């Protein structure tokens, strides 16, 4: 039987808040994957998740956000 751990990857705004380069994005994901593999988890996959929120007084503004869920697994 397998155990799974889901970790939210950095959002575009978090990456852009640093320097916004491709290297920053790669380094952010690499750090997360390295952290969890050091704890005995195996990288399984990365899945995009899209959410939609409505904001404003009359819910007139729709904001769509896509982020990545990093999936790890290990034997239970």
- Mind describing the biggest β-sheet? 3 strands, antiparallel
Helix content: 25-40%
Number of strands: 3
Order of helices and strands: EHHEE
| Count, helices | 2
- Estimate the strand proportion: over 45%
Q: In terms of per-residue confidence, which ranges show pLDDT below 50 for 5 or more consecutive residues?
A: none
Structural class: alpha+beta
State the strand order across the main sheet: 1-3-2
Mean pLDDT: 87
Bulk shape: flat
Measured between the Cα atoms of the first and last residue, the distance is 6 Å
Summary keywords:
flat, 3-stranded antiparallel beta sheet, alpha+beta, 2 helices, 76 residues
Describe this structure in words.
- It is flat and about 50 Å long.
- The termini are close together.
- The chain has a three-stranded antiparallel sheet with strand order 1-3-2.
- The protein is built from two helices and three strands; from the N terminus they run βααββ.
- The mean pLDDT is 87.
- The protein is α+β, with helices and mostly antiparallel strands.
- The protein has helices at 12-18, 22-38, and strands at 2-8, 42-55, 61-75.
Brief summary:
32% of the residues lie in helices and 47% in strands. It is α+β, with helices and mostly antiparallel strands.
Compile the SSE list and pairings.
Elements: E1 2-8, H1 12-18, H2 22-38, E2 42-55, E3 61-75
Antiparallel strand pairs: 1-3, 2-3
């Amino acid at each position: 039987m397998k155990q799974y751990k889901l970790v939210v990857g950095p959002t575009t705004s978090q990456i852009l808040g640093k320097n916004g380069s491709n290297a920053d994005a790669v380094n952010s994901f690499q750090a997360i994957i390295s952290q969890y593999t050091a704890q005995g988890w195996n990288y399984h996959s990365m899945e995009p998740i899209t959410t939609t929120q409505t904001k404003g007084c009359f819910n007139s503004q729709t904001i769509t956000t896509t982020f990545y869920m990093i999936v790890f697994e290990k034997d239970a």
